[in-house]
Specification:
By secondary structure, the protein is of the alpha/beta class. Helices cover 28% and strands 30% of the residues.
């Protein structure tokens, strides 16, 4: 069942970027992560879906066109990057508020609010003032308050961006558990690939020309649909057909461009190797190497002891991780 359907939805913001029309289905209980470069209009799109800015196209909620409805009647809750909790209310009062706004008597609203606080694992904070909460606590209270409105659709705009990395995984895991139980159709805007893969059933890659690919995380990470998606994924190897042949051997006749992540190339020291190590670059979880071979450059990973910079190396290419693209930027062949 479709909780949310966007049919050529296109917010119009005076002085803002020209946004592409977007068509997307999000099932009830599904999380779709929306990723794209800065300035492409992800936040503006969420605001358009919520009815906070004008736009064209249709916003269908539970099969009903609510494009012309005011924001408060759409059944959509938009959770901002920085939770805007009511400072004059304690935690319990904040989560009770949406229920009381709908007409629930205080005991009924309090019971539901405590259930949601328990679900978010912050029930022990019920009588705390919101100004005393940590960033992670505020995020979880804000999520509980958002779900207290029983939204059909939940829009999350980079909800963890202000959190320390050490806290982000903990809060993310709690969000995942809560969303799996609550069941709204959810769009998550994030710039973090790991976050998107952990929380979402599908990813949608929004580029300046529109949505370039919608698929499961693994499919996108392994088989980008366009060279634009591969570029957004920060694949460092993007070669012309001539340079690709140096590393990959024969390539499809229709291929104008070839791309590969650094993990596709395994580099090792080899006195008889045809390549030369140009640079070593440590990262958090691997050692990257920039190499040159027959005038072509590439990035790969070092799995053994690193060879000296300037020394000869050999390269092993994992063909399954390499993608070929036509001149129009689309992937060669089926899929």
């Amino acid at each position: 069942m479709s909780g949310l359907r966007l049919d050529r939805c296109q917010p119009t913001i005076a002085g803002g970027p020209a946004l592409p029309a977007l068509t997307l289905d999000v099932a009830q209980g599904e999380v779709v992560a929306l990723l794209g470069p800065s300035g492409v209009g992800k936040t503006s799109l969420l605001r358009g879906i919520a009815g906070l800015v004008p736009g064209t196209g249709r916003v269908m909620v539970c099969g009903e066109d609510r494009s012309a409805w005011p924001p408060e009647r759409r059944g959509i809750v938009y959770l901002h990057q920085s939770p805007r909790l009511f400072t004059h209310l304690n935690v319990l009062g904040n989560v009770m508020f949406p229920r009381q706004l709908r007409g629930d008597r205080a005991p009924v609203a309090a019971r539901r609010a405590r259930e949601l606080l328990e679900l978010a694992q912050v029930a022990d904070l019920a009588h705390r003032g919101v100004t005393s909460l940590s960033g992670g606590e505020r995020q979880r209270v804000a999520l509980a308050r958002a779900l207290a409105a029983d939204p059909a659709v939940l829009l999350l705009d980079e909800p963890f961006v202000a959190l320390d990395p050490s806290l982000r995984a903990e809060v993310r895991d709690r969000f995942r558990a809560v969303l799996a139980t609550a069941g709204p159709a959810t769009i998550l805007v994030t710039h973090d690939f790991d976050e998107a893969a952990a929380l979402a059933q599908r990813l949608a890659i929004l580029l300046p020309g529109g949505v370039a690919q919608v698929d499961h995380a693994r499919a996108i990470f392994e088989r980008p649909a366009t060279i634009g998606v591969a570029t957004f994924l920060e694949w460092p190897n993007r070669w012309t057909a001539q340079d690709a042949a140096v590393f990959c051997g024969p390539i499809p006749a229709t291929a104008a461009l070839t791309a590969a992540p650094a993990t596709a190339l395994v580099i090792s020291s080899d006195p008889g190797g045809a390549g030369t190590l140009q640079e070593l670059r440590p990262t958090r979880d691997r050692l990257l190497a920039r190499i040159e071979c027959q005038g072509a450059e590439a990035w790969g990973i070092i799995r053994d002891a690193p060879p000296p910079v300037g020394g000869p190396i050999s390269v092993t290419v994992q063909a399954a991780q390499v993608s070929h693209f036509q001149a129009d930027g689309h992937r060669c062949g089926p899929g």
